[in-house]
Amino acid sequence: MAHLLGAEGISLSFPTKDVFDDVTVGLDEGDRIGVVGRNGDGKSTLLRILAGRQQPDAGRVTVRGGTRIGMLDQSDALPDDETVHHAVVGDRAEHEWAGDAKVRDVIRGLLGDLPWDARIGDLSGGQRRRVALAALLSRDWDVVFLDEPTNHLDIEGVAWLAEHLKGRWSRNQGGLVVVTHDRWFLDEISTDTWEVHDGVVEPFEGGYAAYVLQRVERDRMAAASEAKRQNLMRKELAWLRRGAPARTSKPKFRIDAANALIADVPPVRDRVALEQLATSRLGKDVVDLVDVSVSYPDAAGGAREILHDVTWRIAPGERTGILGVNGAGKSTLLGLVSGAVQPTAGRVKTGKTVRIAVLDQRLAELDEIAQDRVADVIGRQRAAYRTGSGAELTPGQLLERLGFSNAQLSTPVKDLSGGQKRRLQLLLILLDEPNVLILDEPTNDLDTDMLAAMEDLLDSWPGTLLVVSHDRYLIERVTDQQYAVRGGRMRHLPGGVDEYLALPSPVVEERPSRSPVVEERPAEPDASRDHPPALTGAERRTLEKEFAAVERRMGRVADAITAQHDAFAVADQSDYAELQRLQAELAALESESAELEERWLVLGERLEG
């Protein structure tokens, strides 16, 4: 594959931190890279350096001649007096952009609810972000860098963006590098993962699920001292293998490796024990919404109904995710449960022992303690927190599990980062021991490691959990059932998020100045593409034999790669000739493994078709 750009010997230091130390990475045609790492370790800085927006202290970035590079930065600023129309399509004639299927798809996917002639200065922060993303995607680039592109997108928007990026270039064309904390999105679009940590960029093959597997193997083989972190990632891997069927279409040797690693890892949650404990704390009555409706006055002097005749009897220990487009009424529904919203019809009955806590997006409860040090805040809390398994954790242990270091204990709350404030907010809520916990978009400002730590803590939380989030991975990870809010009503989703995304789009009120979406005539189906010719009996037997042979060979090559790693471990590290020979043999084995895997996938698809 042709080379697009690369960084060689990159180093960068800030006054208080060394960000990169002699980093070398490259991007080839067809690469789709997801970038993960702790907040503050340099993910966004890496993108800016590769895109030519920031210069390193040492090293260089080389770009193939003629390569067109586009980037969505977290601080992209559009002029306030510019219109949505001009920001997205510029001065291009209408027949030019309206005749481009890609541009129409971008407008439909990102801007369907925005007036085409609206001023950028009149839009919300999330709307401005979507316009900036649409402006980038409506143009042709050879390399696209995206820094947190899923921020301000709902689940439908994230799914659309994943499909758009997967189909934007042919398989061996274009380059994509994405920084995001949305782990489902990473799995959908990434063929490789870069982990930024401790001044280096470490490459891993595959998306987030494959990265987790390889990271566990790396930590185990290196006998890493981070035992707690390793155990957490093993639990994450266990959930990826057991709870997400869509992620199991991996080569068999990888599935076997994952199963061996998680053989002794229990399920992420003991649902029966948690429900029993929740019932003992709550009783049988939690919150019942019976024939509830909520209306608000509209500009015309009438009333706009948000929820209509909703009945929802919340059970002790229930773990429910709420899905819906922005403005569907999700927050109103949670407000009814918490008591912050009063119904205009129907009734809300709350159990006598219910104690509700809300983790919302505002962080308002931290304002009163903004000047206090973290250690002083924690020192005023109860001495122990009891998990669903019966174990007791001190506030200090909770802080450690949520990623706080000893140095941060002396930091005033006002000086914490957004992610640290979010984690402190969750910790204070848990120490107050509510028995109903409402999470309203809890993933803001958290990196993937901290999301895994928060999910691990919630796994042992013995109460009723209600979650609203656009983070599909979180919804699937911490809840056991999902409901959609559509047309003012609640709808149960036995098929989860996939069922929700398959629902027809809700009817939206016609707006005179909405963004133009040019209707496309459906393409005639291509029978040869969508339905390949059926296999004859002889052809199927031949393919099945080859499939089995390839699978056996993949297993042998995987064993040989493991043996080669063992040989590296015992080799004389001063014998450079021997090390070079081992490296050459390992490279040949890994190349063969990649070719076998590709053939295995092709054969599997042919047999399934």
TrEMBL record:
<keyword id="KW-0067">ATP-binding</keyword>
<feature type="region of interest" description="Disordered">
    <location>
        <begin position="506"/>
        <end position="537"/>
    </location>
</feature>
<dbReference type="GO" id="GO:0005524">
    <property type="term" value="F:ATP binding"/>
</dbReference>
<dbReference type="Pfam" id="PF00005">
    <property type="entry name" value="ABC_tran"/>
</dbReference>
<feature type="compositionally biased region" description="Basic and acidic residues">
    <location>
        <begin position="508"/>
        <end position="537"/>
    </location>
</feature>
<dbReference type="InterPro" id="IPR003439">
    <property type="entry name" value="ABC_transporter-like_ATP-bd"/>
</dbReference>
<dbReference type="InterPro" id="IPR017871">
    <property type="entry name" value="ABC_transporter-like_CS"/>
</dbReference>
<dbReference type="InterPro" id="IPR003593">
    <property type="entry name" value="AAA+_ATPase"/>
</dbReference>
<keyword id="KW-0547">Nucleotide-binding</keyword>
<protein>
    <submittedName>
        <fullName>ATP-binding cassette domain-containing protein</fullName>
    </submittedName>
</protein>
<dbReference type="InterPro" id="IPR037118">
    <property type="entry name" value="Val-tRNA_synth_C_sf"/>
</dbReference>
<feature type="coiled-coil region">
    <location>
        <begin position="572"/>
        <end position="599"/>
    </location>
</feature>
<feature type="domain" description="ABC transporter">
    <location>
        <begin position="287"/>
        <end position="512"/>
    </location>
</feature>
<dbReference type="InterPro" id="IPR032781">
    <property type="entry name" value="ABC_tran_Xtn"/>
</dbReference>
<dbReference type="Pfam" id="PF12848">
    <property type="entry name" value="ABC_tran_Xtn"/>
</dbReference>
<feature type="domain" description="ABC transporter">
    <location>
        <begin position="5"/>
        <end position="223"/>
    </location>
</feature>
<dbReference type="InterPro" id="IPR051309">
    <property type="entry name" value="ABCF_ATPase"/>
</dbReference>
<dbReference type="InterPro" id="IPR027417">
    <property type="entry name" value="P-loop_NTPase"/>
</dbReference>
<keyword id="KW-0175">Coiled coil</keyword>
